[in-house]
């Protein structure tokens, strides 16, 4: 089949998220001007550059109690800082609980029973037992097409790696099985890897 998104897909459910898969989940922690912590998962997330290391995530909705966006973007806009916590399969229920639409200022760490730890470089909390956490300074927030679509870019200024995930000097994702978002209500966990050598290597 072929369809133009502007005309509708004529299917029971939108297939777009099922096509662009799997998507890593950035569990974004931030802190508002009153010192209240926020934590929310975003599946439009990825690394975008090596040197300096940079990441992005996109927020595609808004809340009635936040001006035209969600808590994460509003907090980052004000503070200039955020932390990306990597989600493992074992934390799937806590991640899902933290996605609830709660009133602005409610701490999702507490709501979902997630232990927090202080970041080292930025003034923000992080998920204490995450396999990895990337402390970031916001470089820009770009508004894209759509009513409340924002892309947040950040430079990674601090990296936390859980010791049990380091094997032979490499960060081994099979030690924790990264959780990834698929379409609809579906997720997957990465448990198998294989290596390919590029022609120019």
From TrEMBL:
Organism: Sulfitobacter aestuarii
UniProt cross-references to PANTHER family, sorted A to Z: BLR2425 PROTEIN, FLAVIN REDUCTASE LIKE DOMAIN-CONTAINING PROTEIN
Protein's name in the database: Flavin reductase family protein
Entry EC no(s): 1.5.1.-
Lineage: Bacteria, Pseudomonadati, Pseudomonadota, Alphaproteobacteria, Rhodobacterales
UniProt keyword Lyase, yes or no: no
Enzyme class of the recorded protein, top EC level: oxidoreductase
Keyword Oxidoreductase found: yes
InterPro entries in the cross-refs: Flavin_Rdtase-like_dom, Split_barrel_FMN-bd
Keywords: Oxidoreductase
One GO MF term attached to the UniProt entry: oxidoreductase activity
Domain Flavin reductase like: 18-173
